[in-house]
Amino acid sequence: GSHSWESLLPDFPKGPLCKYRKKASFNWKEMAVLLDGKDIIQLKNRIFSALESDPLFVHHPGEELSREKYQELTFLRCKRLFEYDFLTQQEIIENPLKIFHMVLCIGMYDWSPCIQYLLHCAVILNCASYLLEFIINTPDFEAAKFWIGNMGKHATHAVVYAQLYTPDGQYQGLHSFLVQIRDIKTLLPIPGVVVGDIGKKIGQNGLDNGFAMFHNVRIPKENILNIAGDVTAEGKYSSSVKDVKERFSAALGSLSSGRTVITAVSMTNLKLALSIAIRFSAVRCQFGPTDDEEIPVLEYQTQQWRLLPYLAATYALDYFCKSLFENLTEFYLGLLTKQRSQRQADIGREIHALCAASKPLTSWTAQQAAQECREACGGHGYLAMNRLGEIRNDNDPNCTYEGDNNVLLQQTSNYLMSWMHCIRVPFESPFGTINVLQDYHHILDWKFTAMSVEDCMDSSVPLAAYKWLVCYLLRESDLKLSKEKQSGRSDFEAKNNCQVYYCRSLAIAFIEQTVLQRYHDYTHDPDIPSTLQPVLKNLSALYGLWSLSKHLAVLYQGGYASGEQAGRFIQNAILELCYRLKDDAVALVDVFAPPDFILNSPIGKANGELYKNIWGEVLQGSKTLNRPSWWTEFCINRPVAGRLKSKL
Amino acid sequence: GSHSWESLLPDFPKGPLCKYRKKASFNWKEMAVLLDGKDIIQLKNRIFSALESDPLFVHHPGEELSREKYQELTFLRCKRLFEYDFLTQQEIIENPLKIFHMVLCIGMYDWSPCIQYLLHCAVILNCASYLLEFIINTPDFEAAKFWIGNMGKHATHAVVYAQLYTPDGQYQGLHSFLVQIRDIKTLLPIPGVVVGDIGKKIGQNGLDNGFAMFHNVRIPKENILNIAGDVTAEGKYSSSVKDVKERFSAALGSLSSGRTVITAVSMTNLKLALSIAIRFSAVRCQFGPTDDEEIPVLEYQTQQWRLLPYLAATYALDYFCKSLFENLTEFYLGLLTKQRSQRQADIGREIHALCAASKPLTSWTAQQAAQECREACGGHGYLAMNRLGEIRNDNDPNCTYEGDNNVLLQQTSNYLMSWMHCIRVPFESPFGTINVLQDYHHILDWKFTAMSVEDCMDSSVPLAAYKWLVCYLLRESDLKLSKEKQSGRSDFEAKNNCQVYYCRSLAIAFIEQTVLQRYHDYTHDPDIPSTLQPVLKNLSALYGLWSLSKHLAVLYQGGYASGEQAGRFIQNAILELCYRLKDDAVALVDVFAPPDFILNSPIGKANGELYKNIWGEVLQGSKTLNRPSWWTEFCINRPVAGRLKSKL
Residue A254 falls within a domain, yes or no? Predict the structure, then answer.
């Protein structure tokens, strides 16, 4: 091709995957350039090749790393990442989205050094300086802080949230302080500090998580972190953010950045898992129409239905993550420029509501996808070398940290419920995500109107259904809450009783609708090249219908759908879209799969040489063909089979 | 109490779990005796205390075991299990169910030695003897056998399935041979054999799985295994099972035993995961009606709804596993006594259809439960020491080995579809599981008739709905298949196009209906003591409604349910049952939880001293409080924070 993107994106090696690559309806390089832009592709290439050329990042197939060694390696890799300094200040200012891409590229290699790196950056970002002296204490074992990243082994300072009492005895609420916990030369704990490692986790073991307890540890006054409030040299409390509401909005924003990152981390895990499972499915053959001919498992309806909706989800969520990051950038820009407007406060609330639901949606989707991909690859998926176990184990904490998913969803439903009182007046939110409620009463009368499968093949159909679903669940949740309160329950009890099937479903439906709305708008934009638009529209429709199908019972229950056909249309449209996308699946994965070195999965390699790749890796194991070191014990201790045998 | 079970089942230590234990509606010891019987409880006690007292089975908290060391330990433990010889021949004959309990008790400690032990037993069971000589070859790398248990490091002989050609050039089909692969004194491979370790897996790493390839290896004629056929001294093929159908039935039976074991293994994983998550939820407090008072997370509707249906599933599936084992025993008894009846053949087919669906149902339920339990325990669930990761990782292969779950479900739907032609004549199957189809036409006219939530609180309601569901999905699948064939598709294509939303859903609905039918009958038996019946009926209703709720869309779609109320009744009944069961949950777990030593999870300990247990374990780690071994590198290589800081 004569396009300039040719040099940016090298061709894949010839091999068994060519069959599907040739069948693709579009050029994967054109798609990559559309989605990321040349600038970002260059950045990715730069990062990926830096890691691949660096001996510190080399893989050791078949080698077992102890946790201590893995932590050491992670520390050294993290340090190297600081040295690489992938982005200049100018680049960040021109395109803050580059930070987002940089972090995810590193994470594709391994989340442990990536998160260690992020944690170091976060601490650095929060530094501040002051005068007086404080004393900090941990009342008991239960109050000890557990899980702090980097603290298990090597952090020298920690940001500690503590109840602040000023010398006049006044309680000033929760504040953060910078506390030294280890000597920076010896790494031994500072007197009065008990600090240690919390032990092995299910995943992310390169990261050392720790615990800390304090016994009468003095903290220099300058170490209070002045995000929202300080204490003056005279021991008086002052806050640069005067308005409690604004202070709250600022705090929400800082929570939102963590949740945005986790949303993106989870979406990246989707990319990794799908790259592996789809390439595997395209070359792994099993059974066939005759005894002689075996066909790729991707040709089976069940395999398509298990994997392709997650592929569509990956595309929709990738787009959503970028848009969310842009929303967050707007919010931070307002903070930095000290915006005091109502709009800035509204943005804080809206972004909080979005992240509090996008994190659960994306982390759960990735967790389920990792499990489905691992099963879809059968025994090969269960081999550690193929990385699906690592992806699942590393993704797992995304479901519970920075707020448990189920608890977070309440933040979003609370936000939505708070709009119920404005339902009769015109209103809009800064990012427009709740504007659907403007037509609340009207939408509640909508019905499912598609008359054929073909009618359902566009994402406008599930999108309309989602709008009804959000309004319906909002009404039901609101009614349920009123009923609970009327029956004399406390606010606490009433809310508790409205979660399952009501508020929880509402928050999930809302975020799915938002993701779909944005992706629908994007894929239907007339500026999308006509060469790419059909496949993007298919992805949008499949994501929408498949997500919606999990709410099908509610659509019937609430009267939006009725009769046997409605459900059948949706189901058949899902299967038809899976079928239409199967020949594009490998190319769709080629668009986002990182280079083989980064993906690090023999069954996910771009050459598709399944068995050669597996055997190559198996035989790399230094002891693969050796008898066990304990072979002499075997001869002395062989199981006494005779006894059992004689019995049977 | 003066009951004789008091001495069998010691009281639990006093502690924070007492609050819930006191609130339970029944005596957990009475329940344990009802479910298992004293004889089995004694067997369990014997096995559990043997393991606890044996230095070879001691736990090493905080210690990291290399894979090689873990495999060695597993081998020694497996060998010790043979020495323990927990069951006498007499005991096995009197109650074959004891084998089942013995295996699961060992598995509760660790699946690796348990499965190694089972594999050794299986090989021993298959021995046979004959004369001529054969030569075995593996054509290429792709044909190499991968995954063979025990073969990675220590197996000396393997059962190999190979295409048998007799000297007259006749192809005789697939046969099994006993092949020596390693020297029994040196553990070095036999010439012509390439045998090795396949590498690390996601779980079950104590078990050494291997691969093997053969190059012109001679096998003594006596090593053909005569389960279904032999070759005579003159090189002629002969089979003791003359009838092809019978031979097929015998082969199906041997597949069924593996799938029955996996069903039981998965059910046991449910017990382990629920024991940990429910005890944790009963003592872990978070938030509360006021700022001062925190309540156990088990009091939250969401937490109840996340966990208690899995608790109900554990009880229903536990009962089902025992009944399935009895079915299998009847089948094997027929084989051993050389039954040639139609009934014996029918049993073979029916048990095959049951296992091919119970294995997917139970392994998936356990996989989802392990994930839900891990998330429900938050960060504590993510700590490796609390074992939920291990349970999930060890359960994982149950979803794909001995037949991938999705593929296996086709066996069951094929069986059900095969009954369509008899639908107009009276028929029954030996275990009665398809007798529901006798009323097929009648049942298709049924409707959901409950008029209130209270109406739905018995498992008869979901059971009736399930009967309709099975008939409806059978009809729809049959229609769909006919349509596909009529449109000119080959049998292969037509079947492929009928899986998702049709045959696959049919097989799942069928097995859920069967599990529920058996559990409903059991819990409604007038012989159940009145002290235990209410809670058992609640479990049956919850399991039935919760499983059914996943098919709610189909109930509406097919016209069984209509209107808003039907779905609401089911949903509200699920929540009400969760609420009613929450005070019984700890006692229900006490019934099946193994002793602390076996459960091996600080947050799952019977004393409920959450923080003491965790800290006790954390501080056992030999290097918990040490600075890292690589501390000097830290001082040389500390991340150059300044550069980034200056930029921001």
Answer: no
